[in-house]
Amino acid sequence: MTDPTLSALDLPAFNPGCVWLVGAGPGDPGLLTLLALHALRQADHIVYDALVDDRILGLANPAAVKEFAGKRGGRPSPAQEDISLRLVELGRQGLRVLRLKAGDPFVFGRGGEEALALVAAGLPFRVVPGITAGLAGPAYAGIPATHRTANQAVILVTGQSAGDGPDWAALAATRAPLILYMAWRGLGGIAQALQDGGLPPDTAVAVICDATTPRQRVLTSTLGACARDLGASDLAPPAIIVIGAIAELRGTLNWLGVADA
Ligand SMILES: C[S@@+](CC[C@H](N)C(=O)[O-])C[C@H]1O[C@@H](n2cnc3c(N)ncnc32)[C@H](O)[C@@H]1O
Questions:
Q1: pLDDT, tens digit, for every residue of 148-175?
Q2: Substitution site in 181, 182, 230 for ligand 1 pocket (most atoms within 8 Å of beta carbon)
Q3: Residue-wise pLDDT tens digits, 225-243
Q4: Domains and CATH numbers, the chain
Q5: Residues with CB under 6 A from ligand 1
Q6: Residue 44's closest CA among 117, 95, 116, 108?
């Protein structure tokens, strides 16, 4: 599918037998990169994740096969090894394979594992970064990831981990704001561990659900109360959780104008 606007940009060719690992961004199709749109228009086969917005899939070449590879309805997601093998298999068939992942493929997206499998198989690949939910979500909630008078560093961290998990006391000791992915279920324990590590219970918290989509909702709270407040709310994941003084800026910078949940 040729798009005159994209053709004028002299973007790289999506060659048969090549796999592109592409970030779909956090949800709002307006946050898609031009390279991601180019890939969607060219791909023969798209392997996509659960959090990829339907409006973005709708931009794909109508002839492309769309294969779901995420978690849905509480059913277990396909094993990562199987997804990587599938990408290799499709690439070996000489297809233009688009692996479409929410946010950025290399930020808590397991894109590195897929890239390693492609290297091992000797298949050519390209990585197209996307805007990660951990930065776009706060921005759409009126929360700058860094603010000169508030922080000189910011930490992106997972609330779910294959190993022992993050050292919450060490993270608390940095006093840098934390931006949490996949922390919905663990929030109570994480909030307690951060307080045990020295963060005051009145530290600001913002929980940003369905960030950048028309369904976006935000709950503001404190470290001491956030687990209880979230439990009492009707909110649901996916969510990005911001912990630290930057979250207070939402009070004045809520440019989207949607009131707190
Ligand atoms: C497996 S991680 C994928 C992260 C993704 N690679 C990125 O860069 O945004 C899934 C987690 O990302 C976060 N997430 C992704 N999209 C989101 C959205 N639109 N709103 C809120 N959180 C989102 C949630 O914390 C979710 O549990």
A1: 999 999 999 999 877 788 999 999 999 9
A2: 181
A3: 999 999 999 999 999 999 9
A4: 4-128 (3.40.1010.10), 133-251 (3.30.950.10)
A5: 26-27, 51, 101-104, 107-109, 132-134, 137, 181-182, 208, 210-213, 237-240
A6: 95
